[in-house]
Specification:
The structure is a single chain. The chain is α/β, with parallel strands linked by helices. It has a single domain, classed as Rossmann fold, CATH 3.40.50.150. The protein is built from ten helices and eleven strands. A nine-stranded mixed beta sheet has the order 2-3-7-6-5-8-9-11-10, sandwiched between helices. The chain has a two-stranded antiparallel sheet with strand order 1-4. The two termini are 32 Å apart.
Length: 287
């Protein structure tokens, strides 16, 4: 995995990781990541990782996502029964339409949300698709270049907790299924607030707490029993990422707690909308 050696950089000082990959980054320093073992007694067992914070969690999560980058989109479609497309379209609809706008998609992964936000930035608009995981960004770049949008959407390797952009850079920031994976959630929310312009909007799509008791019971069975089995069979994964994912959802703040965290870091207005009975929620925070 690669981490920024410096926390602050401008859009004009970043350089290509390599010509073939086409992903941009700041000056990088190599960090060795120990393997993530699946054994239940291992200190890096996937469910245990979901309770970690800081760099240990970050490094373990990055290794897991690198292992499934090539089948991430396929698995998302299978495991959500195709609903993730609808969830992302609704999320993008909360980004105000503008002209010449600048938007950042944090934890962009394979760039689905960045592609949906791009038309809303209008003529001469730009979108940065940022992610700490190089393998995921490479998959996203394939989509972006395949649609001829390489001049409007830029892929950037960046840490969600230290994004590196100047204060008040973006009209909008989005994130989809990223925030529960960061090492320090409060720090990530604070840095996103910092880089938003006054009046700017942060739109966060994340798994949350189902609002009906019967749905919670069914969802838990699906998440902890069926989902790991399906995901592992499709991805042939050995890192345990499909055990980590449901555990990370359970440990993530629910709708009201996340709303309060957003208010605590300085947003003046925060609302949320439940989708699919609260399995996912969209939080819309205005600076």
């Amino acid at each position: 995995m690669y981490l920024p050696q410096q926390q602050h950089f401008s859009l004009y000082s970043i350089v290509l990781t390599n010509p073939e990959a086409g992903c941009y980054h700041a000056t990088m320093v190599h960090v060795d990541i120990p393997p993530v073992q699946k054994g239940a007694d291992s200190p890096a067992a996937p469910i245990a990782v979901s309770t970690w914070t800081g760099s240990a969690r970050e490094q373990a999560v990055q290794r897991m996502f690198t292992s499934i980058a090539g089948v991430y989109d396929l698995n998302n479609t299978l495991l959500s029964f195709g609903l993730h497309y609808r969830w992302k379209k609704i999320t993008a609809s909360y980004v105000p339409v503008t002209t010449g706008g600048r938007a950042l998609d944090v934890g962009s992964g394979t760039a689905d949300l960045a592609l949906l936000v791009e038309p809303r930035m209008g003529d001469n608009g730009r979108v940065i698709a940022s992610d700490l995981n190089h393998a995921m960004l490479v998959e996203g770049l394939k989509k972006i270049t395949g649609r001829g949008l390489g001049k409007k959407i830029t892929c950037l390797e960046a840490n969600a907790e230290h994004l590196g952009f100047p204060d008040r850079t973006f009209h909008a920031v989005t994130t989809g299924f990223c925030m529960r994976n960061v090492g320090d959630l409060r720090q990530a929310l604070t840095d996103i607030h910092r880089i938003l312009q006054p009046g700017g909007r942060f739109v966060c799509l994340e798994f949350s707490r189902p609002i009906f008791g019967w749905l919670r019971a069914l969802y838990d069975w699906y998440s902890f029993r069926l989902l790991p089995w399906i995901g592992t069979k499709v991805a042939h994964d050995t890192t345990g990422v499909y055990e980590y994912l449901p555990a990370s959802i359970r440990n993530f703040p629910d709708q009201e707690r996340l709303k309060q965290m957003l208010l605590d870091v300085g947003y003046r207005q925060v609302t949320y909308r439940n989708l699919s009975g609260g399995i996912v929620a969209i939080h819309v925070a205005t600076k």
